[in-house]
Design goal:
Elements (H helix, E strand, L loop, with lengths): L1 H6 L10 E2 L2 E2 L6 H45 L3 H22 L2 E2 L3 E2 L2 H44 L10 H23 L1
Antiparallel strand pairs: 1-2, 3-4
Length: 188
């Protein structure tokens, strides 16, 4: 009896109508379907906007790292550019990656962590490429310095000991002349 009475509830209470004790499937109105599609579209747009924001922050980080390294290198402060600035930027991105890990008894790696890890890898690659120029210049400087020292050693004006060849010639001629004079004097 109660199951029959429960079928006739007032309209202000939403319940599923039953036919002979079995619930009938709900029929959705077009407005409900439109609302669900709109809600799904909003979720997709929000997810795309988050992905775009992450991509832009990665690009900005890579640009800032490369620009800072290039600026400091052009100002002839390449040691700071290659060591300090690169370490700071890469450290910040690595800390951001580690902050995306969730721990509740077990470590959870989700999409945010993977995106942050991709950001860190891209910044590391950008710094590696930016430091490649510094490494090439540094190696070229070392090679140039070694070649310069070698050329200086090859073309260096070396002190040569004085040559006494002319004195030997004059001395020999003098001794020969004295010998001739002595022989001519004793012969007379």
């Amino acid at each position: 009896m109660e199951s029959l009475l429960s079928q006739f509830q007032p309209d202000n209470q939403q319940s599923t109508p039953t036919l002979w004790g079995t619930p009938q499937p709900e029929t959705k109105t077009p407005e409900d379907e439109d609302g669900e599609r709109l809600e799904q579209s909003i979720r997709e747009v929000f997810a795309n906007k988050q992905l775009l924001n992450k991509a832009l922050s990665t690009f900005l980080g890579v640009f800032a790292a490369s620009g800072g390294v290039s600026l400091l290198t052009s100002l002839s402060i390449s040691a700071i550019a290659s060591g300090t600035l690169g370490s700071i930027v890469l450290g910040l991105f690595f800390a951001n990656t580690l902050s995306k890990l969730r721990y509740d008894g077990t470590i959870h790696i989700d999409q945010d962590f993977l995106v942050a890890a991709a950001q860190t890898v891209s910044v590391g690659a950008a710094l590696w490429i930016a430091f490649d120029e510094h490494r090439i210049v540094s190696n070229a400087t070392k090679t140039g310095k070694q070649r310069f020292y070698q050329e200086v050693k090859e073309y260096e004006v070396k002190p040569t000991p004085p040559s006494y060849d002319s004195w030997f010639v004059f001395g020999g001629l003098g001794v020969g002349l004295l010998a001739i004079v002595y022989i001519l004097r004793n012969w007379r």
